[in-house]
Amino acid sequence: MEALNSTRLFVPALPTLWPGMLLGRGEPSGFMPFSAPNVRWFYFARNAVWLTVKMLGLDKGEVLMPAYHHGVEVEAVADAGATPRFYRVGSRWDVDVEDVERRIGPNTKALYLTHYAGFPGPAEEMRRIADKHGLPLIEDCALSLLSADGSVPLGTTGDIGIFCLYKTLPLPHGGALVVNGPRQYSLPEPPTPPITSTLSHTLSALLQNLELRGGRFGRGVRSFIRSLGKGAVKAADIQRVATGTQHFDRRHVDLGMSPFARRIAQAQDLEAIVERRRRNYFFLLGRLRDVSPPLFNQLPAGVSPLFYPLVVEDKAEVLARLHARGIEAIDFWRHMHPACDASAFPEVMQLRRSIVEIPCHQDLSPEVMAEVALVVRGALTQDRRTRKHAG
Ligand SMILES: Cc1ncc(COP(=O)(O)O)c(C=O)c1O
Q: What keywords sit in the KW lines (predicted)?
């Protein structure tokens, strides 16, 4: 354990950009949303959520959304003029479809289903309820790119499928709005984002790759370039539209996706990405199930996990331990949107207190995953010991 304590890992939360990916291969892909006939590309998924409300004429009506949500998608719905209402999600990320149906009222204008971290929600059942009540179904796949429910790709059952690309692929930005079925909407082509912003995000992802491959040397080069970069960004007053932020910002609602980011997307081997994510997830499941009860005991066919949802007792403590050891674990969805009454959804609040994202993406080799598992086990058992002593 001592030797391990002295090594600092570098386990980034998101996949990094390999230089070869800048030369896109341009092969057609069978995965959504790349294969969809009717798709619009955006800077982020939140823009697609906002536009969906406008496009379907949901403003002034109510959209029935899950009580377990990020918050930014709720902000986008509200900003576009609709009122979000919430339905119950259970302690295993299970949507309570009976509760969904119970809550449909005269002002309900759409149902909103979110697929959590690649794990499919009940799209078929939601489709049935939506059809029964004559409502459109919005499928939010922002955390579920490349994932399928068996052989049914996520984002193909709803009237609308919404995707975020940059959480799964090493792109500077990217989101998509897919319209399924025969309906046609004339949507303006969103303008391309500022090139400086695209280049600045691309450089960050390349530097992360350097650190991933280059160990101590790579880390040194990255921190040197970052320090120069920060000064340059400030001095040149470069407009950098941050991705992955917590809040919706109307100023960026029209931003589209750059052709450069599309090219990087085309350079990805999507089958291999799914396979690696599944391999890494299985590995963590096997190594961690005895120290933390898994949220899912298996990985159903078709699932491409975004991360491993680790159940912990003290998030802050475990996160601090993992960060200290170089694992970019993330506090998953701590906060409820203020429009949602926390006291009405106790299981969701418990989830918000207990889930930590452990990276399992395509850039992490089996050797790195073995170290990640060891560090996570250490962090969990140490956490328990501390609590026992404190108690
Ligand atoms: C469920 C869900 N929908 C939508 C979004 C918005 O994604 P983006 O950051 O691409 O706007 C997020 C962001 O995390 C999300 O978790």
A: Aminotransferase, Pyridoxal phosphate, Transferase
Task: Name the residue with the closest Cα to ligand 1, atom 7.
Answer: 45
pLDDT in tens, 86-99: 999 999 999 999 99
Which pLDDT band holds residue 4 (cuts at 50, 70, 90)?
very low
The answer to whether the CB of 198 is under 6 A from ligand 1 is no
Please report the pLDDT score of residue 381 as a whole number: 87
Atom from ligand 1 closest to the CA of residue 244? 9
Spatial separation of the C-alpha atoms in residues 68 and 90, rounded to whole Å: 9
If you measure from the C-alpha of residue 274 to the centroid of ligand 1, how many angstroms do you get, rounded to a whole number? 20
- Please check the confidence at residue 232 and state whether its pLDDT lies above 90: no
Strand pairing class (160-164; 137-141): parallel
Look over the chain and give the mean of its residue pLDDT values, rounded to a whole number: 92
Query: Which of residues 277 and 25 earns the better pLDDT score?
Result: 277
Nearest CA to ligand 1 atom 14: 70
